[in-house]
Amino acid sequence: MGLTLSVIFEAQLRCCICLDVFTSPVSTPCGHNFCQACLQGYWDRCDFYRCPLCKAIFDEKPKLSINYSFSEITELFKESRQAISGKDQKFVEKVQEKQKAEETRAEGFINELEKEITELQRRNIELEQLWYTEDLIHFLQRLPMLYTSPCAQDWTEANVHADVGVGTVRCVTSGLKRAFRETENFSSTAVDVTLDPSTANPWLILSVDGKQVWDGDTQLHLPDYPKRFDSSVCVLAKESFTTGRHYWEVEVGEKIAWDIGVVRESINRKGIISANPEDGYWTMCLRHSNMYSCCGTCCFSLPLNRRPRKLGVYLDYEEGQISFYNVDAQSHMYTHHHTFTERLYPFFSPYTNDDGPNTAPLVIPPVRTAAQ
Predict the structure, then answer these.
(1) What is the CATH number of the domain that holds 345?
(2) pLDDT tens, 88-123?
(3) Number of domains the chain is built from
(4) Of 351, 261, 356, which is closest to residue 17 (Cα–Cα)?
């Protein structure tokens, strides 16, 4: 209950434009709160003044003033979150170390069990063959030897911690099998993804070959197609999927903010979007250089040991999963699970250039074959 209240409280302190805790919060006449800079930037890109959340239209630009009481609350929340994060870091590391050690023990336990099972199966086959090929006396003479496996062990004395148990063993096994299966599929499911300029927000610049995208800091005069993003700096790929397994990579380099993932065809592309699975967005995002997050039933932080500079995205339509990988570290970061019912598109957002620090593009590298 306490965790649920904490999540709800934090959600009330987040700006729906930048998805971060409010900075210099201001209120519109309709009662909704936004970061002062976010709201001003939104209005600068619109032909008239309206609320980004409820779409209420104002006859003239509202006079905005910072809500200092609300601002103090958000600052206190930021300070408390930083203090809690610092205290919890050593505890998290200890838990991770213990978990890694127990997983190693579990893997060894599984390997020994598999050896034992293999040997028993071999002996069972030999028994069946003897039943049909040898006389009864010979069989009885060899019976004790057949039931004494050379690698048999007394598992009654095996010391396995209670917190590992069957569930952890199954989790480790299924996780290893899934990772192995997905890794095997990468080379055979790699797809050549190209950006679709007809979906690109007018503030975005696409390379001629459709393999790079960045914020150009200037709004282009482009036809307002129904499938074009008009407010959020996003773009989709030309390729789409309704079945099968598909894998592609995106170079993010040293960018300090981005959004990458998969979306369904029927998403809303006009106005401020809400990038969550309920609205057809299955993404991973970065903010402020080191804040990684994903959105499931709610948005949550994603702690990573290594900064990803190249992301791998793996879609299994029938299995209903979208996985993200750190390509250089060869590690799994997060997997969305959902039952897909319509066409899906690769999704990209280089985010705004942040007045300089985030000008680098998102890059779609050449497809890697099995030989590579």
Answers:
(1) 2.60.120.920
(2) 567 667 777 777 888 888 888 788 888 888 887 777
(3) 3
(4) 351
